[in-house]
Amino acid sequence: MADSALPPPADRPETSHGLPSAVSGLLGSLGHHIQALLALAGQESKEAATHYLWLAIILGLGLIFAVFGYAFLVLSVAFLLGFLFDVSWLWICLGLTLLHLVGAGICGLLVKARFAAPVFASTSVELKKDFDALKHFQP
Q: How many separate domains does the chain show?
């Protein structure tokens, strides 16, 4: 009886047994797990926001430069070719406009390919692991 009055050793904390303790431990573990997943999602969302912000800035600047560059280029080439071949510069502008629309379509496809890259890859992998573990759970 004298041994039961002694506190448990420091390296082995006292544990209680029973349903309330098990439920409390389960809820605590679940809370820590959800907190870790939310922290990971928060970190990845910051990275995604930075990624999309830079993409939007670069795309906007590229569009501004492209509009002015194309306008000056088309007009310059149209007047030059009209002068050289004695053809109306309006027909030459039409041909160059079609050529530039094809180039803009190619650029649009490149931007679409850039947006297709997955952003939340780590979170997706962790959630798949969790769901697989829950599917094969055996108490």
A: 1
Handedness of CA 29, 32, 36, 42 (dihedral sign): positive
Q: Is 78 exposed, middle or buried (0-12, 13-18, 19+ CB in 10 A)?
A: buried
Residue 64 domain-assigned (yes or no): yes
DSSP category for residue 121: H
Domain-located, residue 95: yes
pLDDT one-digit tens code per residue, 10-31: 665 555 677 888 888 888 888 8
Mean pLDDT value of segment 110-139: 81
**Structural domain boundaries, residue 104:** 42-139
Res 56: pLDDT: 92
The answer to the question of residue 27 being in a domain is no
Q: How far apart are CA 17 and CA 137, in angstroms?
A: 22
CB contact set of 97 (below 8 Å; sequence gap of 6+): 74
